[in-house]
Design goal:
482 residues; TIM Barrel; Rossmann fold; 3 domains; 31% helix
Amino acid sequence: MINLCLTLADPSFAALNQKIAQYTGKVPYIEVRLDYLAEPQVPSVQPDQGTDFIVTCRPSREGGHYRGPEQDRLDLLQKAAHSGFSWADLEHDVQESPNLPSSTRIVRSYHCFDRFPEDLPSRLQSMRETGGDVIKLAVSVTTTQQLATLLEWMESALETTPCVILGMGDLGQPSRLLGGFLGNSWTYVAEDESSKVAPGQLTLKKAMECYQLHNWTSSPHFYGLLGNPIAHSLSPDIHNQLFQHHQLEKVYLPFLIDDVGVWFDYIEKSRLCFEGFSVTLPFKTDVLNVVQQRTSPVDSLNTLVKRDSKWEGLNTDYPGFLHALRTHGSLKGKTALVLGNGGVAHTVVKALQDQGTEVTVVGRNRDKVSRFAKRYGCRYTLFSDLPMAADLCVNATPVGQFPNIQDTPLTSDQLDFEVIYDLVYRPEQTRLLELAGRRGLKTISGMEMFVEQAALQFTAWTGLSPERQMLREIIRKATGNS
């Protein structure tokens, strides 16, 4: 089982005591950060309620908020250890430990915020010699190469020493997600997004409800999202709920990376079992270089699945896009205006052309859109040249997506079409679709494509076909539209 350690930090002593009482017995460990208090003092804890308490008063030299005299800080830790705290966090450079009860266990910690240290093995050995029941190493991670180096080292270091090793920063977050499965003594989590005390820290709700880290008793099969950025992706919510619904030993995690090749070099050597990935921008073409076989009508992949030790690439956006058009009759001989010439527009144009549709693509930069059109042998025009009539209009731009939900790529007087298909799914009813509806046009929400492509990904990984309505409900709940 992966142990969660909830970090509680608040400038108000009363609020901190309230939070301690609220979460006691809910998680195996609670770290109480005295350095965040306006006036550092020791709160009361109930140590016999199923939670071990760790007292931390991090000095500014190690990235904390405490700036007072060092002896006063150590006295606070000593007082806490005599008041029910069973663990005390002592930094690597503390030479003389405070007078702690013999039963007090020590977290010996080291934080490096400004660089990725190249001497991790020797640093670990030095901290072992200094003494501690658990060694904590938190280091800055700013590239996927550093992340891979850290994870590879964790796989060996955690087999021999009780540790919590983690990479700080957004690119270091995968080390927090995978650390418990690799052997970290616990995984630090924050109360909520506003309470994070370290970059890349997970929230308690995400750890327990989405990833269910506390419930794993063995290492599952790993799936995840590869992209940059990925912070607002709904894929973890969708696929983890589907895995849980079907009682599968699988977990889906977000992997923010900056280099696909480096990531795959790591996972091929890892003892963890990686079985599949969703792929988003900017890596949909980069992953062509890491697959051994592909089943995609376009030079762009959004789904990877491991079959017989080989990576296969698929594109579920292609059938997902066409699925929503199935009730609108044949596309052969029809005309379509595609707004946008990046990302998913490649898949949209190819899918429409394969159905016999005459496509005109619309862009803002003449050079860029003309190169796009030449690649697919289609016409192009600029937004400034609109309106233009067509049977179908597809919005393949992000204009109108959350949080800029009042934006629209077209005005009402430019809607000279029979059908408007907006690939934006958040919100489900975009400003563009509202304008089209007022004019009596047929509309298709991006929700339809999003649901279908996600369902097809799930099928590729599991062989199961999920209920589409269940996916819609998951997405609506995650976006606050249930």
